[in-house]
Design brief:
The chain has about 270 residues and is α/β, with parallel strands linked by helices. The protein has a single domain, classed as Spore Coat Polysaccharide Biosynthesis Protein SpsA, Chain A (Alpha-Beta Complex), CATH 3.90.550. It contains ten helices and 13 strands. The strands form three sheets. A nine-stranded mixed beta sheet has the order 5-4-1-6-11-8-12-10-9, sandwiched between helices. A two-stranded antiparallel ribbon has the order 2-3. A two-stranded antiparallel ribbon has the order 7-13. A hairpin with a 2-residue loop joins β9 and β10. α4 packs across α8. The longest helix has 14 residues.
């Protein structure tokens, strides 16, 4: 079945960016001239997604205002758009809970989930390439990480690999380096069966007391399977200050008008850096 819908979980508090996130959502922090969420939205558009579901909360009105303006001025943004809707997450209870909030808008279809925090620079739409390889099993974007950092991610226990596809026999949320079965980490792109809502509805809190999407994926492996997709491109963790800065510098270095600014800054300050 064709994937037409995407869920953007944007209800997080953004505590790592306090105090600025007291005023604006972290998803609206800028990478040069566009907010972070705009890049994820463009990636979804380029994948042929038609309906955009934002799971938001109080204090996130600027996200709604931004996309309201975008949808009312499509020629200015040069984007062919579908429809957008917003649903409230009353409190941040984890990614699994955020996805569950969108249940009534999915209508029993397979759907995508995209985290704007995971900024992916790629010659092709990451979620679009995943959709091309989707075969009905739950699918996640994956990448190898340094083993000392595995406790930041959901980590696959790999059964086999075929090209870019990695077939998992298990998955563990934020394992210690000693207990991790591999260094293949899940990053914020998912293609999910609507059956996941049945699991999320009865799932108890997991790591950090939150409803973890990874726990639902683990429970569904016997019935649905779990496939990792090693995407092409570079991923930046823009949920952290260092990751956001790195993404800004990378985009600037790929922009002819800004690359010379970086080069000039380095040349003038090389003794201080």
């Amino acid at each position: 079945m064709r994937i037409r819908k995407v869920v953007f979980p944007v209800g997080g508090l953004g505590t790592r960016f306090f105090p600025i996130t007291r005023a604006i959502p972290k998803e609206m922090l800028g990478i040069i001239d566009k907010p972070l969420i705009h890049y994820a939205f463009e990636e979804a558009i380029n994948a042929g997604i038609e309906q955009f579901i934002f799971v938001t909360r109080h204090g996130k009105d600027s996200i709604e205002d931004y996309f309201d303006y975008m949808f009312s001025h499509p020629d200015y943004f040069d984007i062919n758009m579908g429809s957008v809707c917003y649903i409230r997450q009353n409190e941040p209870k984890g990614l699994g809970h955020a996805v569950l909030c969108a249940k009534n808008l999915i209508n029993n279809e397979p759907f995508a989930v995209m985290s704007a925090d995971d900024f992916i620079l790629s010659p092709k739409s990451c979620i679009g390439e995943m959709i091309k390889n989707y075969n009905g099993a739950n699918m996640v974007a994956t990448m190898p990480v340094d083993r000392k950092h595995v406790s930041r991610y959901g980590i696959l226990d790999v059964e086999r690999q075929e090209g870019r596809l990695i077939y998992a026999k298990s998955v563990d949320e934020k394992p210690s380096p000693e207990k991790a079965k591999s260094n293949i980490a899940i990053v914020g792109r998912y293609l999910l069966s609507a059956d996941i809502f049945k699991v999320l509805e009865r799932l108890g809190p997991g790591v950090n007391g939150e409803i973890q999407l990874t726990d639902a994926l683990l429970e569904m492996i016997p019935s649905c399977g779990l496939v990792g997709f090693n995407f092409e491109g570079q991923r930046f963790d823009c949920g952290s200050k260092g990751g956001l800065l790195a993404a800004i510098l990378r985009v600037a270095s790929n922009t002819e008008k800004l690359k010379h600014v970086i080069d000039e800054f380095i040349r003038e300050n090389k003794e201080k850096l």
